[in-house]
Structure formats: structure tokens, C-alpha cells
Task: inverse folding
């Protein structure tokens, strides 16, 4: 009997040791999310696993800016375009399945004339996106308005376009335009950009503590209600901290930070601090980590920016070029601004060799820095509240993810950090689509309530 017990004990010990040696998961610092230990995997094995996962999950980027000059018969996204970070060939090459194209409008004067121009700009961009999906490349890409659309289009083997509105300034004083924008396909909207709008204070007021509304205006509060009603996600990426707080209190549906990162990792007013992150978690929303260098690693980005500014200043003096600051460029009349930007782009191209030489020994912000923010937010608020955005063609792009063709590199780094397929799927698209579903569910309830009142 003792011999049998000894054999059983030995077998049990052997099993325990074996289990310990083959355990592949370890809890993160919060003990909530587990990630695999990939330390014994080769780079070839990591890449192979990443390719497999990348192919199986839906990859979704919530922020890609557009220029309507690239939406013409002669020049459009069905072709690989020079100097453009997102087009259909690059999306296919990098395995980026869903791109949210942005109806962006810079903040102008809060006047009837300003609202008119802003609205025309927004409609021009809505129409450009419509041309892409209905005229230029209907067999390659389709507009989605729901998560079901996303999955159906992806299953059909086509790319997916979605629409976000960056700055509600074009709404002007007419809140019925929110429903119109929703019908055109808009599925998130921010109430401000750089500069205070008629609806909300901007994060840009933080520098001098100058505010217009101390958060949201009364019209801004009404706008939140209208967005809830018509199924547009409230985007908190650009408004001020107080405005964001009020949006979270007012919104009956989850919110999104369409392109923001963690302020604890990079102290920039466009990032969310820990208090805000916790509020987004409580709200059920999601923060779409953004691949914009100065929002990811302030020190690296500043060193390169300082070198660039020095080169441009010296070269401008040599070329006798009037190098205007961004805020001064924005004050120019529209036609003068366009003419100046053409000259500025030519100046930058001419200075490019000098800039490359000045920055050659300064490291770029890279995919590892980017995923550091994902790690931080996953540990802080959980895997269900973190997503991905690029801000391509609007300032975004880092080493390793400089355009849509390099999208696989993000998945590879997530695999290297030990994220599972299920976790990667949540980060790439599952969390955002869950929020969209909930927002549209709330919209149906609110619309149903209005119908009952009418009866």
C-alpha cells in the first residue's frame, strides 16, 4: 500500500512540475488581464502567429483624415497615392480592414458666415467619401453604418469605410443637421477641435486657462442629447476636461475618445488623465490609442521637433521665405491659406535633405512606444475599453506604423506582449463595435420614446 501511495505521490508531483513549466499566462500588474509569456518564442514564431491572428480578426482604425483633392476621377484612393498614408492598396497590403474617414473642419469664427463655410466644407467631405464607395471603388470598399454592416462587408471580402466628424462647428445653429449627418453615415462626432466652438470648450484653452463656456454651452448640452437620439457616438478627444466631464454626465450612451492616449505616459492636453480614463470605463466607453508621436512620447517627439524648427528657421532665412506659425496660417482668408500651404509644402520638400541630416541620430517614436500606452490603459481600465487609431494624413504616423501598409506591425507587437487572439480582436475592433451597438440601441429607445409621446 505504501508503495502504491509513493507512486501516486511521485506522479502528482511530476504533474505539478509539468504544469508549472508549461504555464503560458501571467497576470498583469492589476491582476485582471492575463497575457502569454512569449519570452521563449522566436521572432519568426511571433511573426507567424501575428500574421495568423491579423488575418482572422477585423482590424479597425478610427481616425484617417482626408483631402478631397484625392477624391477625383484622376486621383483617388483606388490607386496607391504618393504622400498619402491611407488608400485602398495600402489598406490591402497592411491588412487594415476598416478605416474611419474623417469629416474634419478647422475652427473658425462663430458667425453666420463662418458656419456657412464650415457646413460647405463638411458636405464636400461627405460627398467625397460617397464618391469613393459608390463611384470610384464600389467593388473594393463599402460604407458601413452598423456593426452588422462591418461584419457583412468584411465577410464579402471588401474593405470597409466608416465616417467620423471632427468638430461639430459645421452644425452651426441648426441642431437638425445632427440627424442629417447621421443619415449621411456619421457615427461619431466631437463637439470641438483646436479652438472653442459654439458647443464646447477645447483642450487648447488649457495652456492659458481661457474658456468660453466653462465646459459645454447650453447648445452643446442639447447637441449631446441629439447625438444620443440619432446614434452618433459622442467623441471626447478634443474638448476640454470640464467639457468631457459634462459630456460623460449627460450622455445616455457610451462615448469614445477617437484618437487619444494616456496622459500619465505622455503629458499632453490631448491625452486623457487617469481620472478621465476611469470615467470612460464607468461610462462603458472606449479610448482609441493614437499613433501620433507627440501624444505617445513627448521627449522623443520634442527632440525631433526642435531639430526640425531649427532647420526650417535657418533655411527660411536663407531662402527669404515667410515661415508663418500655424495659428497665423489659420487666420489667413481661405484662398490665401491654400496658396500659402502650396508654397509651404514646396519649401518643406526643398528642406527635406537638411531635415533628414539633422534628425538622423534622433530616435523616432515607434510601435513599442505606442503599445506601451495600450498596455498602460489595459492595466488601468481593462481590456474592454481600449482601441486603436492612427490619425493618418492628419499628423499621425510612427516608426513601424507610418502608413496603412504597415498595420501588421501593431498586431505583431501585441502578440510579442502576450495578448491573445481574443484580446487583440477586442482592441482592434470588438470594443469599438460594442460601443457602436450600444449607442444605436440607446438611439432606438430614445426615438421610440418620442414616437410614444407623439401618440
Result:
Amino acid at each position: 500500500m505504501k508503495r502504491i501511495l509513493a507512486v501516486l505521490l511521485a506522479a502528482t508531483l511530476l504533474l505539478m512540475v509539468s504544469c508549472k513549466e508549461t504555464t503560458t499566462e501571467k497576470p498583469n500588474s492589476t491582476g485582471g488581464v492575463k497575457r502569454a509569456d512569449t519570452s521563449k518564442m522566436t521572432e519568426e514564431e511571433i511573426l507567424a502567429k501575428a500574421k495568423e491572428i491579423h488575418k482572422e480578426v477585423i482590424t479597425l482604425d478610427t481616425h484617417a483624415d482626408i483631402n478631397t483633392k484625392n477624391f477625383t476621377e484622376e486621383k483617388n484612393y483606388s490607386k496607391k497615392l504618393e504622400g498619402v498614408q491611407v488608400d485602398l492598396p495600402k489598406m490591402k497590403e497592411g491588412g487594415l480592414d476598416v478605416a474611419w474617414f474623417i469629416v474634419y473642419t478647422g475652427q473658425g469664427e462663430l458667425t453666420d458666415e463662418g458656419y456657412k463655410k464650415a457646413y460647405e466644407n463638411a458636405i464636400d467631405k461627405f460627398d467625397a467619401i460617397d464618391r469613393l464607395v459608390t463611384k470610384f471603388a464600389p467593388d473594393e470598399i463599402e460604407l458601413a453604418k452598423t456593426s452588422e454592416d462591418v461584419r457583412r462587408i468584411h465577410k464579402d471580402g471588401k474593405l470597409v469605410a466608416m465616417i467620423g466628424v471632427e468638430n461639430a462647428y459645421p452644425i452651426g445653429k441648426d441642431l437638425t443637421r445632427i440627424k442629417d449627418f447621421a443619415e449621411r453615415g456619421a457615427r461619431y462626432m466631437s463637439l470641438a477641435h483646436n479652438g472653442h466652438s459654439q458647443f464646447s470648450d477645447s483642450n487648447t484653452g488649457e495652456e492659458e486657462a481661457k474658456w468660453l463656456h466653462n465646459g459645454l454651452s447650453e447648445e452643446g448640452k442639447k447637441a449631446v442629447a441629439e447625438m444620443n437620439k440619432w446614434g452618433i457616438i459622442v467623441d471626447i478627444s478634443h474638448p476640454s476636461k470640464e467639457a468631457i466631464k459634462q459630456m460623460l454626465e449627460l450622455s445616455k450612451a457610451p462615448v469614445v475618445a477617437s484618437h487619444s492616449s494616456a496622459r500619465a505616459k505622455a503629458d499632453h492636453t490631448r491625452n486623457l488623465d487617469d481620472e478621465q480614463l476611469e470615467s470612460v470605463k464607468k461610462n462603458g466607453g472606449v479610448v482609441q490609442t493614437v499613433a501620433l508621436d507627440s501624444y505617445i512620447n513627448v521627449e522623443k517627439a520634442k527632440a525631433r521637433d526642435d531639430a526640425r524648427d531649427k532647420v526650417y528657421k535657418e533655411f527660411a532665412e536663407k531662402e527669404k521665405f515667410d515661415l508663418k506659425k500655424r495659428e497665423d496660417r489659420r487666420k489667413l482668408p481661405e484662398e490665401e491659406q491654400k496658396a500659402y500651404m502650396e508654397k509651404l509644402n514646396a519649401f518643406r520638400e526643398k528642406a527635406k535633405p537638411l531635415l533628414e541630416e539633422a534628425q538622423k541620430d534622433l530616435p523616432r517614436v515607434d510601435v513599442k512606444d505606442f503599445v506601451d500606452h495600450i498596455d498602460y490603459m489595459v492595466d488601468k481600465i481593462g481590456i474592454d475599453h481600449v482601441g486603436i487609431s492612427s490619425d493618418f494624413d492628419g499628423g499621425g504616423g510612427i516608426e513601424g506604423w507610418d502608413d496603412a501598409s504597415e498595420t501588421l506591425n501593431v498586431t505583431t507587437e501585441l502578440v510579442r506582449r502576450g495578448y491573445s487572439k481574443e484580446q487583440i480582436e477586442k482592441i482592434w475592433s470588438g470594443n469599438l463595435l460594442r460601443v457602436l451597438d450600444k449607442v444605436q440601441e440607446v438611439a432606438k429607445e430614445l426615438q421610440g420614446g418620442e414616437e410614444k409621446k407623439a401618440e
Notes: Confidence is low (pLDDT under 50) at residues 1-31. The two ends are 83 Å apart (CA to CA). The chain has 16 helices and eleven strands.
